[in-house]
Structures are given as structure tokens and as C-alpha cells.
Amino acid sequence: MNRNAFLKRSALSAAALASLPAFAHFSSKEEKDGNPLSPKIVRSGEGKKVNVIGDQQTFKLTSEDTNGLFTLIEEVNPPGTMIPPHVHTNEDEIFKVLEGELEVTVGDETTILKAGDLAFAPKNVPHTWKVVGDQDCKTILSVFPAGLELMFEELGNLPPGPPDFAKVTEICGRYGISFLA
User: What pLDDT score does 14 carry?
Assistant: First the structure.
């Protein structure tokens, strides 16, 4: 690397690092809401467990924990578990596979995620997923901004048995989620 390129890169890096405290300050809703964020440790096996129409979820961090910034959910599901194609109008989602295999379609791209892989599903982009392979799939679902866990709780409170798709569609619609035909 020549000297000019080195100096230019160093100056840009210094500017980026200098802006981090300002970015952190404005990225938190603490000032706006007046509620400082509190640290939280969540151990393996801890969190609120919810069966969302067959999708086994454990809420690790919720809107209440993050001042509405994001929600973090652990999902552990057997092969065959799936969510039909749908679109969010409010949230971006990140799926990170810890164990097993997850077939994910985001937009027009379908792929199989394995341990360590992740997929980003931005709002307004159709997506779906299905656990494939021969073992359970453990996935961390990150949702930005938070609040979708409220919908998941409502869905988890539906009576056991085959879901009433009209009721599921109505609940999801209130949260800005629509299913695709």
C-alpha cells in the first residue's frame, strides 16, 4: 500500500471510530423514552416459551428489555416445521442457524442455511422458511424493531389443534404481516 493510500485509509478509519460514540448515543431510544436500558443476562433454557402454531419459540430479549429496539427469539423445531410465504411491513428479520438446516427463501433466492449461516429478510420482501434435514434446527431470530413478540404471543394463545387460518390472518394483519397465495 502506498503512503497516500495508507494516510487516506487511516483518516477514514479515525473518522469512523470518532463517530461511534455519537452513533451509539442516537441509536438508543433511551433519551426519547426516558428509560435507560438495563443489562440482562439470559441463560440457556431461560426465557418465555411460546408455541406459535408449531414454531417453538423462546423469547430471550423483548421490546420491554430493549426499549423497542429489537427482539431476540430462539427457535428449536423438528424437520418439516415451516412458515408459509409472507411479508412484513414493519420489521426486518435476521435468521441465524446454530444447529441443523433451514431452507430459507427471501425474495427470489432460496438456499439452505447450516450452522453459522444467516439470512436477512428486510421488510416488504416476501420470505418463508422450513426446517429440512434429519435433525432439529436451532435458530436465533432477531427482529428490528421490537414488538413482533406480541403477535407471537397472541398466536400462541390460540386453541390447540389445526389453526383457524382466518383468525391467524386477522391477527397477523393487525401487525402488518400478510400471507402470499
Answer: 41
List the one residue out of 101, 95, 97 whose CA is nearest residue 134. 101
Instruction: Residue 75: name the closest of 47, 100, 55, 101 by CA.
Output: 55
Euclidean distance between CA atoms 62 and 147, whole angstroms = 7
Q: Which three cell numbers stand for residue 114?
A: 447450516
In this prediction the pTM is 0.81
91-139 pLDDT, tens per residue?
A: 999 999 999 999 999 999 999 999 999 999 999 999 999 999 999 999 9
Spans of the chain below 50 pLDDT: 1, 3, 5-32
Burial class (CB in 10 A: 0-12, 13-18, 19+), 56: middle
User: Given CA atoms 85, 175, 157, 150 in this order, what sign does their dihedral have?
Assistant: positive
Among candidates 82, 128, 71, 73, which has minimal Cα distance to 105?
128
Closest CA to 151 of 176, 130, 126, 132: 176
Q: Report the alpha-carbon distance of residue 130 to residue 107 in Å, rounded.
A: 15
